[in-house]
């Protein structure tokens, strides 16, 4: 599915003929080469009325309470099964805004490019950004490009920042969490991190493991439309995975969390890859999932609604908030044993988002 989308994007956005094949330090000088690079790519491909002003900033119209978020992306390799660093950068900030109960509207986009990056790779990243923005319904309205010397970067780093108005029915806060709340995850865990690692380690399976990177804003807004304040908290388990996110919440909110291994959704091949590499899928990064805390009375209805959405079809209730063992996450294993879940103590997987 994603491979077909890649071919479609390439056909719709053929790379223009340029008189240079790689990006040089001159492309970051702010002069003629910089303008050639931006004119032949960023401004044409991502064109909109605000960006086309080419001002140092963007003039935006926003009403009411607004969410703001920023993130930087350093993934290696920059192209991976199911996506690349470009769409990852768009989806990452879009999803951070969605976790606030906001409708993402505008993004900034900044590149730090290492000298020698092939222009074809830069173009493919820009095309992915264009289509990710269209899917999410956001616009790139301002940005920046810098080029660093060979050996002082790693091909390309991307930063995106975004803003969007908070949904009028949204009341997303860890303060809303209460004993009895159910914890819902929107889909299969660990796919993104293992897609990256399968490439690095040369692992082969019956079918390719793909990153789950996608925008979640439309899915989240539908839930808030229907359930409003019953959505107590939303969070996306990116770096550090499900375990680290839940442990952070338990500590900061002084609650106990019971987690059930048998209910954790995971693709069989992803689970096999984790086992081969000796990795705990609870700590592997995700880029297309969210976790929701909802009242027990609403949990089944929220789950049913989420499973009707393509991006929530594998959603499950994975645990609950309890009054016992405050600040602790306790997981019951598939065979009935229990263990304490801690935060990721170090770097389990380097450079995955």
From TrEMBL:
GO biological process, one term: protein maturation
Domain PurM-like C-terminal span(s) in chain numbering: 179-329
Ranges for domain PurM-like N-terminal: 56-164
Classification via PANTHER family: CARBAMOYL DEHYDRATASE HYPE, HYDROGENASE ISOENZYMES FORMATION PROTEIN HYPE
Family indicated by similarity: Belongs to the HypE family.
Protein name per the record: Hydrogenase expression/formation protein HypE
Organism: Zobellia galactanivorans (strain DSM 12802 / CCUG 47099 / CIP 106680 / NCIMB 13871 / Dsij)
């Amino acid at each position: 599915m994603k491979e077909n989308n890649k071919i479609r994007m390439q056909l719709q956005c053929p790379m223009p003929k340029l008189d240079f094949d790689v990006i040089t330090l001159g492309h970051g000088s702010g002069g003629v080469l910089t303008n050639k690079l931006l004119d032949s790519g960023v401004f044409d491909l991502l064109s909109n009325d605000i960006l086309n002003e080419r001002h140092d900033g963007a003039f935006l119209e926003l009403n009411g309470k607004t969410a703001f978020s920023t993130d930087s992306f350093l993934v290696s390799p920059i192209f991976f099964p199911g996506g690349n660093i470009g769409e990852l950068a768009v989806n990452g900030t879009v999803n951070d805004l969605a976790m606030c109960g906001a409708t993402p509207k505008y993004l900034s986009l900044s590149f730090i490019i290492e000298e020698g990056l092939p222009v074809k790779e830069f173009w493919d990243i820009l095309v992915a950004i264009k289509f990710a923005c269209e899917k999410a319904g956001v616009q790139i309205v301002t940005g920046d490009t810098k080029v660093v010397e060979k050996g002082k970067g790693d091909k390309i780093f991307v930063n995106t920042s975004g803003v969007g108005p908070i949904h009028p029915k949204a009341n997303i806060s860890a303060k809303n969490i209460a004993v009895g709340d159910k914890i819902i995850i929107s889909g299969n865990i660990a796919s993104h991190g293992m897609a990256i690692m399968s490439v690095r380690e040369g692992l082969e399976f019956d079918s390719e493991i793909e990153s789950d990177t996608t925008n979640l804003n439309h899915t989240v807004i539908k839930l808030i439309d229907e359930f409003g304040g019953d959505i107590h908290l939303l969070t996306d388990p990116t770096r550090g995975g499900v375990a680290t996110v839940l442990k952070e919440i338990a500590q900061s909110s002084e609650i106990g969390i019971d987690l059930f291994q048998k209910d954790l959704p995971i693709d069989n091949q992803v689970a096999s890859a984790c086992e081969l590499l000796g990795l705990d899928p609870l700590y592997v990064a995700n880029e297309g999932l969210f976790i929701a805390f909802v009242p027990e009375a609403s949990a089944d209805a929220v789950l049913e609604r989420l499973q009707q959405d393509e991006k929530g079809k594998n959603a499950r209730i994975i645990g609950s908030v309890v009054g016992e063992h405050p600040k602790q996450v306790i997981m019951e294993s598939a065979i009935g044993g229990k263990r304490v879940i801690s935060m990721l103590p170090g770097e389990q997987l380097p450079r995955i988002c």
